């Protein structure tokens, strides 16, 4: 992703996931924003952003953080919100194992309490170890945890999958985490 695209993508993440009020934007109950309003209100902070650039950023974002509706009039973040919204995900059976990337400084808390969603709607998990490694690397040397998601699901714990393939659940108890990875 181009440097300018990355900068705009981070700004869009802030606005569409955490603080739409920063630019005076309103999201609906499902996290959708009007595209024209978003572009207009972003001009003060991102003067180069227009609808075509927004489409390019959404299409080329390697993490598929954003999604348009079918006619490109609405946009939202795919997951990771700290705002109270309902993304309308339906429960789905996960694969037997999922992965989570973290770093050493969080390990004591994870061993004690598991993975908690904290200020987000869900804990984020991935199907590929490589993705978890990238996520963990953002904060230092990554530690990859193997999550026994099949066992969790068998015990009645719900999972969802976002439009960009991220697996979501409310929390992961330490009993379902392999700390020997």
From TrEMBL:
Coiled coil: none annotated. Keywords: NAD, Transferase. Its EC number is 2.7.1.-. One of its GO terms (molecular function) is NAD+ poly-ADP-ribosyltransferase activity. It is an enzyme of class 2 (transferase). It holds the Pfam family PTS_2-RNA. GO terms for biological process: tRNA splicing, via endonucleolytic cleavage and ligation. Belongs to the KptA/TPT1 family. NCBIfam families: PRK00819.1-4 (NF002014). Removes the 2'-phosphate from RNA via an intermediate in which the phosphate is ADP-ribosylated by NAD followed by a presumed transesterification to release the RNA and generate ADP-ribose 1''-2''-cyclic phosphate (APPR>P). May function as an ADP-ribosylase. This is Probable RNA 2'-phosphotransferase. It comes from Aquimarina mytili.
